[in-house]
Fold:
Amino acid sequence: MSSHCLNSRRRFLKTSIIGGLGLAGAVRAQTSVRPPAGSPPPPQPPAPPVVTAPPARVALTTGGDRADNTFRALRAFEKEIAQAIGNKLVVVKPNNVSVRKPLCATHADHIEGILEFLRSIRKTNVVIAESPADGSAPEGFDNYGYNKFAGKYGVKLVDLDKTSVDTVYCMDQIDLRPHACRVSRMMLDPNSFIISAAVFKTHFFTVGTFSLKNVVVAAAIKEPGVKPGEMDRSNRFLVHGGGTRGIHYNLAALAPRLHPHLAVIDGFEGMEGEGPINGTPVDHRVCVVSTDWLAADTVSAELIGLGIGKVGHLTYAAQAGLGQADLNKIEILGPALKDHIRVYKLPANVNQLLDWQKPPQKA
Structure:
């Protein structure tokens, strides 16, 4: 590990991690003073409140045309999406983790389905914004055929690494301290309406990746001069939290500020195995849409035979009431969910990836 990384881990930061998640509720301090003999037992502290989320609706479409699947799923929420956008800037966030491997990236047809829908509801203040892990955003836009959308739909193509920034704080599981992390202000702006144009993929670090991770991780900008292979010098490294516990905590902790307002997840051709880059294709031909990102991610995880119980950040988000994750409280708009489940092959190191489920080791 580089000396830079070690020094950064020792640096004391005064600000705590966005107030925490409050996953377990408030814990009251207990006194160590014993009451006099014969005294009545002290009153028990109240149980922490149960955090619940309202029921949700998720649109599920299937068929042989990717763009049409996307468009039809969005139509199920036409009125509420139009109202929620209002006069806001619409930020379509694709998943271009690498700019050279088409299977890992959001397909242009999926983007086109979204843009056709936005045009149908007369929303024209739209950008496509990305910060790939491997390569530059302009290179990815060119390689994956997004540039044509500038002329056809009047959208702007934005490199998130070139936008103005704000600071959030991430936890590192090794030193358990908050670390300042620079993220794109566009992704935090309350006047931005974020659409996560994500993809069904297994993941060698988080087991599965859907709409939330697509937004949170790419919001962390790549600093000028940081080259591939120097992840320990990047904001992206800070979001990953130093391990399988840290990344899940950070994703859930940042979700209240960095989350999709609309999840549009493409499962036309998913990725299984060693995702998010080196996996193999799955011919699935589905699309999932919801204004409740956690409900969309829950349904997507179910559709790939995973469930959220193996995905730490979705489990934590459910416990915090950040959205609906109970399938019994999610109305599926479309065909029956059970008829379209495909069991995706998980990464070879999945047992290590589930360490977040275990009690932490004592020092």
About this structure: The longest helix spans residues 108-120. The first strand starts at residue 56 and ends at 62.
